[in-house]
Amino acid sequence: MTMPTRTTTAEQKRKEVTRARRTPPVPTQHLAELAWDVFEKKGEDVIVPKETVTSRIHATESQFARLKGYIRDHVTMEKGKAFLSFRDGYLITTDPNKIAENVGWRLRRITTELRRLLSGWINPLGEDVANYEVLAMYQEEIGHMLRVSDRMRNLSLAMPKPVTTVKGKRRRRRTAAANARAT
Length: 183
Hints:
By secondary structure, the protein is mainly alpha-helical. It has helices spanning 9-21, 28-42, 50-57, 61-79, 96-122, 133-158, 176-182, and strands at residues 82-86, 89-93. Helix 2 (28-42) packs across helix 4. The termini are far apart.
């Protein structure tokens, strides 16, 4: 019979120091509210990089991932604005063009993942899929989801883009060098 090893005093102190350095847990709801304030201060339709948000609210990568879900599940309905991952950052908006672009992008990602479920996991079994009731059901239902996704994509291509307000064209300011060349 072997005796359990005893931890040395040095090991215990090392564990205590490690625990002391840990960031205390912060509720996701609180971080989500802090993040939403960052977006509101920046303004609607302003792309804010993830790094800006995490540094301002002192959040880790995993905390940011959780707060995004909380914002989408709860805060957006309360505030009446969409929260989008848009190009190189995140933003809050009520702009139908940005929302439609983001929905289309997400649906393409979901469709790709559904196709991979079939091609990588289910369809390689070939005719044997019929022997497994649950796999046959998945194959049929995923096929249905892909048909619906294709139909939505085709319908969205046939629809007019959401109406936007007409904004004046931006004019470039001439630099001193451009002015010198012009004269």
